[in-house]
Structures are given as structure tokens and as C-alpha cells.
Amino acid sequence: MTLETVEFWVVAVVLLASSLAVVLTPNLFHAVLYLAAALVATGVIFLLLDQPFLFAVQLLLYAGGVVTIVVFAIMLTERLVGERIRQTSRHLVNGAIVAAAVFAGVAGFLLQAPLTTVRPQRRLQEEPRDATVAIGRALVGPFAVTLLLLGVLLVTALLGALHFARGEE
User: Fold this and answer.
1) What is the band of 14 on the pLDDT scale with cuts at 50, 70, 90?
2) Model's pTM, two decimal places?
3) Whether domain 3-121 has CATH 1.20.120.1200
4) CA-angle at 11, arms to 5 and 15, nearest 5°
5) What b-and-e string marks burial along 118-151, b requiring 16 or more CB atoms within 10 Å of the CB?
């Protein structure tokens, strides 16, 4: 086993454990903290795949931005004054069945894949590839309208959250 394989399995275990904790934790605020851990672990997977730009985007936008917005939404809507926010996981059995079915499907595809895949080694003369330019061209090129509509959707969701968080005056 190489060091890269060990790193991947450590990050995979952290990602799986924090993802399960998000769903199974009764405290909503703790669930958001576990979500932050899961999003950071997902970013580390990008880093292990030699994609530092995607790691930075994952860390800044999701682990930083989304978790901060969710924490503020919890604090604004629940009017925390020393109270504990509890969440209940309804339909836990149905969720477990769906998760097991998805796991079985993914495991089936993985078992059909060849076990020995060799990561291509870069030559010393070859420049390291950076996906930043390709991602930028894809976002500005064929996916520009999708990106703009996503921005409009996020601003609309933020305005709706502000409307519902504001008290009736």
C-alpha cells in the first residue's frame, strides 16, 4: 500500500463518519458542524487528486460560505437564547433502505471495474496540468447561462430566507 492509498482511506473514513453524523445527530447545530467536516473532507479528496483549485473552491464556497449561511439561518429563525435546537430524523428506515440500495449500485459498478489502475506518471519536462483554465472556459462558455441562473436562484433563496427570518412587525 502506498502513502497515497492510506491518505485516501483515512479521508474516506472521515467523510463517511461525518456524513453519517450529519444525518443521525439530533442537535441541528452539531449537524451543521459535521456537515462542515464532510465538506472539508470532500475538498481534501480533490487535493489528493491533484486539483488544488477545486479544493480551494470547495473549501471557500461550501465549507466556508454555505455552513456560515446555515448557521446564521439557524440563529435567525430559531431565536437562540440558550435553548437547544433538536431535530428528529423521521423515516430513518426508509432512508437507510435507499442508502443501502445506492451503496449496492455503486459497489456493483466498482466491483466490475479493473482493480489495478495505474496513475499516469508525469514526465519531468511536462508542465503540470492545471484545470483552472478549463473550468473557467467551461463556466464562461457553454455553461454561462446555467451559472447565471444558479446565481439568480441563490440570490432569490437568500432574499426568501431574509423574508422568513424577519419577524412580523
Assistant:
1) very high
2) 0.62
3) yes
4) 140
5) eeeeeeeeeeeeeeeeeeeeeeeeeeeeeeeeee
